[in-house]
Design goal:
The chain is mostly beta strands and 965 residues long. Helix content is 4%, strand content 42%. Strands 4, 8, 9, 11, 14, 19 and 20 form a seven-stranded mixed beta sheet that branches. Strands 38, 39, 41, 42 and 43 form a five-stranded antiparallel beta sheet that branches. A hairpin with a 6-residue loop joins strand 44 and strand 45.
Length: 965
């Protein structure tokens, strides 16, 4: 039997319950203020039965240890996949927190989670609550503490570990003195790190609103309301002199910054005393060969800085300059610090390489504190990015708080140079060289993918790399000819070698990403190839014609040189030809077994329009196409290609010529010949110095005999070159002729001046006044082009135009293409119809009756008119008529961020994925809705519109719409 309490007793019990609840609430609030700083670290499963979707985590929290603070024995973790550990499910690794100062405890939590699929996940922690009186977080006592780490689960990444921040996340600063902090981040995988300050965050719903049965286990993290960075002007103060970086003479505004590469935080200088919190993101970048660096994770640290008043002066730390060290070599350096107040100084070192590296303080001063850093890196430490060690000097004052100086030292670990490189010529056709060397880094284990790169150049060099100079400078002219795995000890070079030349070889090692890195280059080995290859020496144009052109090709006979006897028989030549000067599409034109036959006249060519390139192959042990035949080929050589064009004012002829030959014409004379109108012979008019690939000359005639407008002049050039081989004078004076090129000395057409006559106001008036939507299905735009000739560009340009060429490109394209041409003289307009977008750029070119083309007009771009009108009513009743809310009039759009509100200002719908809105009257993404239909009535909207014009114009439209079903 249950008996009810008498009314007075019930009232007494209710009063007691209310009192007890208030006391409990008060107790919770007085104990909730305790979280100072923290971060989360992650690494993929490395156990024997490795599961790439199983991730291990370590979270570090710093808490206030005052008697009224919570001891944080447990934590709630949100795993980023819609699940959580459950409220208070993760236990601290120790029964009691670790006391690190008289005001701060360290708490460490270990946990793991297995994800169902690959993807990107953000793991986070919500703490209730931050400690009191944080100056740059208003009402910090009632703000939750939020930190997170983002990971990417991808089997292609292999073993991946998040950055480890080895320096503590809580620190002290002194008023009117520079504050320094470096998280001393270390990435064990060699990934690159970058740093960026962000605002501290909180979760309004807290743990209970996120992890409860009604929560979704996905924290709604937001910037703490009213958060300001520590250098906000409201905190007062000015900077003090500091040598930097960043340097500051003092007297400027306070600055709080973080170096994006080193992570160094500099606050110059705090003024107002108290607590400050700052957060920053450490992003992890994975370098992949042939692709941009990929961000594969990030850690957000929220740290606390306590600014105190101190007459103490901070110590001054001295560290070595950034340096490099060869793997396997011990590096030892002394770190020193002095204190202006002659206080003793304690030295600290933070880095992921400690251990095995060591740092031991030997003296504390005064006057000088000293410590010794020692490290012997191995091949697993070799990386393209330096390893950072952060040193901190902290004084021990007789009164007041200790102060610090902090600096980062960066050491780049490079690979040792390969040793024992030798080279030997082989008795092969074509010639080849075999290189051998000592086994590289035999004791390197656990670092797969190390490659040895083989480089070659003509001639020897006395290059000696600097102590930190890996690889080979491009200026030396070495070209890579091969690569082999680390344990390989030889390589045979068979490509492009020529007898009689000396080649220098060097090798060095490269190390796999993500760490990357390289070694010093080996000593060189020089190999002189005996014998003499067949060499092309002439490709000269004999006849200029479109169908009966002729070119003479000449070459030298080869010699073996290895054993003093001739090549084995049968031997033969094969000459091949390609059209142009830079092609590999060769066709055989001549074959002979007579080794004394060293020339060929190639006929039936179009030498008027084309240059030609030739390649000679020498065969031994068989004829071309026969099994067992071996061959070596010459470097290809082209004919000389001449172009001639009159200048705009028809006062001179501009000549240019090009060639691609294995000998050099640079520094040798090129003779220019001209045939005047009415003459049958050519005469030399100039001698110019040739270049590596061609040359040029401007023919203006002479004062006594200037060039005449309207006349035709013909030209050819004669080049001289040589191989520069000692004792081979006949190979050092190689004469070749270009084709003959004629040009009419006439002015070019005047260029058009283009304009567009589109009228957006007229278009807007037309489409806004009509019924229905715009554009209607099938409707397109037209751009109206108009132009006239600029008869002074230059003066005397031709106005006798046969037709015009119209070029265009879409807004997202970079190259113009020919769109159309006018059909008759005198037409100076063009309507470009059928366009889905008006955003098109144009140029116009004039063509005269002789076929000469003018310069292109200046580029003129049409843009989309910014048309946008929304209706004031729609009827989403499913009858197929006016069922969606979308623009009535609209020029092309990129996107719309559309939000609808009811008359009380509650958001009922939001969308930013559809540039035409197409709202059906549902409550998607609305506040307090479940995605169902909104009721009939009046709604207010805001549409943030980005137009698809050239400037990406953004405008905001506000209005109302009536929904009737």
């Amino acid at each position: 039997m249950i008996l009810s309490l008498p009314a007075p007793n019930r009232r007494l019990l209710l009063a007691l319950w209310i009192s007890l609840s208030c006391l409990l609430l008060l107790a919770r609030n007085t104990q909730a203020s305790h979280l100072r700083a923290g971060d989360i670290q992650a690494k993929v499963d490395t156990t024997a039965g490795r599961n790439p979707r199983r991730i291990f985590f370590k979270m570090i929290l710093y808490t206030d240890n005052s008697p009224s603070s919570v001891r944080q024995p447990t934590a709630t973790i949100f795993f980023g996949d819609g699940t959580s550990s459950g409220v208070d499910a993760i236990k601290r690794s120790t029964a009691d927190p670790i006391r690190i100062s008289n005001s701060t405890d360290l708490n460490i939590y270990y946990f793991e989670h297995t994800y169902n699929a690959v993807g990107t996940y953000t793991i986070s922690f919500i703490g209730e609550n931050r400690n009191r009186d944080i100056l740059n977080i208003p009402d910090s006592f009632n703000r939750s503490f939020y930190i997170s780490t983002t990971i990417v689960i991808d089997p292609a990444l292999g073993l991946n570990r998040s950055p480890i921040l080895t320096a503590p996340a809580i620190d002290r600063a002194a008023r009117n003195q520079v504050y320094l902090h470096n998280p001393a981040a270390f990435d064990a995988d060699g990934d690159s790190l970058s740093y960026q300050l962000v605002r501290c965050q909180y979760v309004p719903e807290g743990i209970e609103g996120t992890a409860s049965p009604t929560g979704n286990n996905r924290p709604n993290n937001q910037v703490c309301p009213g958060y300001t960075y520590p250098d906000d002007p409201s905190f007062g103060g000015t900077s003090v002199p500091y040598s930097g970086p960043p340097s500051d003479p003092g007297g400027n505004t306070v600055r709080f910054s973080q170096d994006v590469r080193t992570g160094q935080i500099v606050w110059n200088s705090p003024f107002r005393l108290g607590y400050y919190n700052a957060a920053f993101v450490v992003s992890e970048w994975r370098r992949v060969a042939g692709a941009p660096a990929r961000r594969i994770g990030q850690v957000i640290r929220d740290m606390q800085i306590i600014v105190e008043n101190s007459e103490n002066l901070r110590p001054l730390l001295k560290i070595p300059n950034d340096t490099c060290v060869v793997a396997g070599t011990t590096i030892t350096r002394t770190i020193t610090a002095t204190d202006p107040d002659r206080n003793p100084v304690t030295l600290f070192a933070y880095s992921g390489i400690i251990p095995p590296a060591t740092f031991r303080q030997t003296t504390s001063g005064p006057p000088t504190a000293r410590g010794t850093f020692t490290w012997t890196p191995n091949c697993n430490n070799i990386a393209s990015e330096p390893t950072q060690i952060v040193f901190k000097a902290q004084d021990v004052p007789t009164s007041g708080s200790p102060l610090i100086d902090e600096r980062g030292w960066r050491i780049t670990v490079i690979g040792p140079a390969p040793t024992g490189l030798t080279g030997q010529q082989n008795a092969t056709i074509p010639p080849s060289v075999t290189l051998r060397w000592n086994r590289y880094l035999a004791d390197c284990v656990g670092r797969d993918g190390i490659q040895l790169l083989i480089f070659r150049k003509e001639g020897c060099t006395n290059f000696t790399p600097d102590a930190c100079q890996t690889g080979l400078p491009a200026s030396l002219g070495y070209v890579q000819v091969g690569s082999v795995a680390k344990d390989t000890q030889q390589f045979t070079d068979t490509q492009g070698l020529e007898r009689g030349k000396t080649y220098s070889y060097r090798i060095y090692a490269t190390f796999p990403l993500p760490g990357g890195g390289a070694s010093l280059a080996s000593q060189e080995v020089c190999v002189t190839l005996k014998g003499k290859s067949a060499l092309l020496k002439n490709v000269t144009v004999d006849q200029t014609n479109t169908t009966t052109g002729a070119i003479t090709v000449r070459w030298t006979a080869p010699k073996t040189g290895l054993d003093g006897v001739g090549f084995p028989t049968p031997s033969s030549y094969r000459l091949s030809r390609a059209v142009g000067q830079s092609t590999t599409n060769f066709t055989s034109v001549f074959t002979t077994s007579n080794l004394a036959d060293t020339s060929y006249v190639d006929t039936g060519l179009n030498t008027q329009s084309n240059a030609y390139t030739y390649r000679l192959e020498f065969f031994v042990g068989g004829i071309p196409g026969q099994a067992g035949a071996q061959s070596e080929a010459t470097q290809p050589a082209s004919s000389v290609r001449l172009t001639a064009a009159a200048n705009q004012t028809a006062t001179q002829v501009n000549l240019t010529w090009t060639y691609a030959v294995p000998w050099t014409n640079a520094g040798r004379p090129t003779l220019v010949f001209r045939r005047n109108p009415g003459s049958t012979t050519f005469v030399q008019v100039a001698s110019v110095t040739g270049g590596a690939t061609g040359g040029s000359y401007v023919d203006q005639g002479t004062a006594a005999a200037p060039l005449q407008k309207g006349q035709t002049y013909c030209y050819y050039v004669q080049t001289e070159g040589g191989y520069g081989l000692p004792g081979n004078s006949y190979l050092n004076t190689l004469i070749n002729l270009s084709q003959q090129q004629c040009v009419v000395l006439a002015a070019i057409p005047c260029p058009p001046v283009l304009r567009l006559v589109n009228n957006c106001d007229s278009l807007n008036a037309v489409v806004s006044s009509r019924s229905g939507v715009f554009p209607r299905p099938g409707e397109t735009y037209t751009n109206l082009l108009r132009w006239n000739l600029d008869t002074n560009a230059p003066a005397g340009c031709v106005t006798d135009i046969a037709y015009y060429r119209i070029f265009s490109r879409a807004a997202n394209e970079t190259q113009m293409s020919l769109r159309d041409s006018t059909r008759a003289p005198g037409i100076t307009s063009y309507d470009d119809k059928g366009l889905l977008s008006q955003a098109v750029c144009y140029q116009v070119q004039a063509v005269d009756v002789r076929g000469q083309r003018s310069a292109l007009s200046a580029e003129v771009c049409a843009d989309n008119c910014q048309l946008f009108v929304l209706p004031n009513i729609f009827t989403p009743n499913g009858d197929g008529l006016n069922d969606t809310f979308r623009p009535k009039v609209s020029s092309p759009l990129r996107r719309i961020h559309f939000t609808a509100f009811n008359r009380w200002g509650v958001k009922v719908y939001e969308s930013q994925n559809n540039p035409l809105i197409d709202w059906t009257g549902d409550g998607t993404n609305g506040e307090g809705t479940s995605g169902g239909k909104v009721s009939d009535g009046l709604y207010y909207y805001q549409a943030e519109v980005e137009f698809a014009d050239l400037n990406g114009t953004k405008k905001t439209f506000k209005g109302w719409v009536q929904i009737n079903r």
